[in-house]
Write a structure and sequence with these properties.
mainly alpha
């Protein structure tokens, strides 16, 4: 996630990159050609350019709204995951009878939740998670998980088995067990929502046509402005083109919030937050530190 502190002109221009540079060169070429080549009337009337620009702005705005809704839903689901993880650890530590025999199990449940959120982050970003989850799971379980298609779901199933074991030992009654299972259902529902966003991208047309129409509009824009603006055409056309190119790039970056890019939901920072909270809950001495932004980007 790019932090607000990075919103500087130089970074914004670099964000668009080469398309903006080529647009400026094209604007200058059109202006020079207009001055040097004899002509009578403007190349393209200004009214159609206004209509095209308005239509394109509506198209881009519609796509960007849908892209942002996906990004915000992803962030909301991870906010729910943070809250559910805290609630689950609190229940594991205090709803299960506190005695000498149950202490290892209660700690194991909390540590499994840490492993779960790390596995979920890697699952969504299509990364390997074995080094991330190995410190929090029993020896040998990681090797068993390597054969699983959905590693976080397998970890959650293992957690459910431990809760069932606590129930058989009489350390938790049916009411408290139902409460814990309800929180686990919330965790599972949040994971399902994240997987839906990951596995169901916006239709290809939402990605292809806005970019295509934006580039076409930027190409014909100086042709419609040069007759009235003349030497100011490169400046005006580049500024307008920059806005459309930026809108297109923003929508493209927001529509897939789990791709491990600078504008995605900061999964690493969120999982680290959960890790810190849960380690402190079980009294760990060597607690991880919050992640800090790298070049104004929080991962």
């Amino acid at each position: 996630m790019v932090l607000p502190e990075s919103a500087k002109l130089g970074r914004m221009l670099h964000y668009i990159g080469w398309p903006l540079f080529f647009l400026l060169m094209w604007d200058i070429a059109v202006t020079v050609a207009y001055v040097l080549i004899p002509h009578k009337d403007g190349l393209i009337p200004s009214i159609p350019m206004t209509l095209l620009g308005s239509a394109l702005a509506l198209f881009l705005g519609f796509r960007n709204n849908n892209a942002y809704n996906r990004w915000w839903e992803a962030r909301t689901l991870w906010g729910s995951m943070v809250n559910a993880s805290r609630s689950f650890s609190r229940m594991a530590l205090h709803l299960i009878d506190e005695n000498h025999d149950s202490t290892p199990l209660r700690r194991a449940l909390v540590r499994r939740q840490i492993a779960y959120v790390h596995a979920l982050r890697c699952h969504l970003r299509k990364q390997e998670c074995w080094d991330e989850i190995a410190p929090y799971l029993p020896e040998g379980e990681v090797d068993e998980l390597k054969s699983m298609t959905n590693v976080p779901n397998a970890i959650l199933n293992g957690t459910a088995k431990l809760i069932a074991s606590a129930s058989r030992e009489g350390w938790i009654d049916s009411i408290r067990r139902t409460q814990m299972e309800a929180v686990m259902m919330d965790i599972s529902n949040a994971q399902g929502g994240m997987e839906r966003i990951k596995n169901t991208p916006l239709p290809r047309e939402y990605d292809f046509y806005p970019t295509l129409f934006s580039r076409i509009f930027c190409v014909i824009l100086p042709l419609g402005l040069v007759d009235s603006l003349l030497y100011m055409t490169p400046l005006a056309s580049s500024v307008v083109g920059f806005m459309f190119l930026a809108m297109d790039r923003i929508g493209e970056d927001l529509q897939n919030p789990f791709d491990n890019r600078a504008h995605d939901v900061p999964l690493a920072a969120l999982t680290r937050t959960i890790e810190i909270d849960l380690e402190q809950a079980i009294g760990e001495e060597d607690v991880a530190q919050p992640l800090k932004p790298v070049d104004n980007v929080l991962w």
